[in-house]
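User: Please fill in residues for this 100-position structure.
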């Protein structure tokens, strides 16, 4: 729960930074935090930030983490849903093992 809450706070912080960076721009679509990038950077740099004994360095590492994540936002495109094709062609396709 702690990690999920911390990631949500990082995402909120990066969304605010992306909004501040796009303040004067006229983009076609709204931008938000790229969640795949958030997870990748978070799992790599979180423990370094957490285990830092100096509070000033910890804040610097956290700000650097937020800036790295906010560098590459994703666009929120309206009406982007893809439907699953059901039923599948083969009824029990996941239960067969390869012969090789």
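Assistant: Residues filled in for all 100 positions:
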């Amino acid at each position: 729960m702690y990690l999920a809450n911390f990631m949500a706070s990082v995402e909120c912080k990066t969304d605010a930074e992306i909004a501040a960076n796009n303040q004067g721009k006229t983009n076609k679509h709204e931008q938000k935090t790229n969640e795949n990038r958030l997870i990748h950077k978070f799992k790599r740099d979180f423990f370094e930030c957490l285990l830092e004994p100096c509070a000033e360095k910890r804040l610097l590492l956290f700000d650097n983490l937020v800036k790295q994540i906010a560098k590459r936002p994703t666009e929120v495109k309206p009406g982007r849903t893809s439907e699953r094709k059901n039923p599948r062609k083969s009824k029990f396709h996941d239960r067969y093992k390869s012969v090789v």
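For context: Strands lie at 30-32, 74-76.
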